[in-house]
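tl;dr need the bound structure. longer version: we got a ligand (4'-deoxy-4'-aminopyridoxal-5'-phosphate) that a collaborator sent over and nobodys looked at where it sits. i said id run it. heres the input, straight from their email, havent touched it
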Amino acid sequence: MSRVYNFSPGPATLPEEVLQQAQAELLDWQNLGFSVLETNHHDPAFLAVAETAERDLRELMSIPANYHVLFLQGGARSQFSMVPLNLLHNKTTADYLNTGIWSDMAWKEASRYCQAKAVINPETTLNYTTIPDPQQWRCNPEAAYFHYADNETVNGVEFVMPPLVGNVPLVADMSSNILSRPCDVSQFGLIYASAQKNAGPAGITLVIVRDDLVGHALPLTPTMFNYQAHAKAHSIYNTPPTFAWYLCALVFQWLKRQGGLTSIAAINARKAEKLYHYIDQSTYYTNGVDKRYRSRMNVVFKLHDETRNTAFLAGAKEAGLVGLKGHKLVGGMRASIYNAMPETGIDHLIEFMTHFEKLHA
Ligand code: PMP
């Protein structure tokens, strides 16, 4: 079977070139006669992968020298605990901006460790379809940090710019939009992202953290949850997910070949605009997200006649378009169009949606 267009929210489609390279190197990597999967994590060949991955990520995101770059395990959900455990230091409160399902989950988890304050009234998000005006946020200038999700994968809501929170360290969950556009890392105290959408496969999590925020973990912090332990060991404190790390390294090289984040951001903007434009002019499909905050990565939409959802998904699959089912909590459809989704994928999706609309409108 030939490859289909995979709109899965994550683990998500990977660049074909990356998969081909991994396949070609699987049995015999770098003339070693064995695979990267079978390489010890202290072997110079693997250490070179780790170093190159970090160097390329630093270059792609222009990460300043006073930030640690960590490659961890445990997914973004572990960060929901690691952030408070490491960043509370001698404070007891942190601010949380809940603009969707994921930031809400991060807030609930943090409440186990501190007074996690929701800075907005949930009703003002209109069911997670908009971001309330910053003037309505009740921020605490004494909070240990301010947490938000730059892109809400399930709800399809994305920030255009990072929020301005004064001197309070800004913490961003960028799981679903890291590396999709340039960002000024110096505005953040910490950025985290599980890799399985824009950076690589599942099993590895990127953490970019300003060095002054490391080294103050609460005494009860498990060592595996302590950023300092991982920073000191260059993310090889224990056996790391070597294959996932290697694949991330290949994705970073692929991104550099695409011209880096400015180039990929232009492509991403074009892809998203095309799809939203089509949805907006149609009377059969709707997207209920505030136009100012529509995600460039996760385009959620509903059919006018929701009894046709199953037929839509079956027809899409037949047309070579998979992974379009919306998250169970919100229903409808979702096209996840991360960096590795080619523009032709959007064209094919629009073509299928037009065809389906003609049949059923
Ligand atoms: N945050 C966001 C924005 C996500 O999209 C996800 C996963 N979909 C998570 C956190 C949780 O990531 P993980 O499953 O890697 O823990």
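gonna send this back to them w/ a short note. Residues 10, 75-77, 102, 149, 153, 173, 175-176, 194 surround 4'-deoxy-4'-aminopyridoxal-5'-phosphate (CB under 6 Å).
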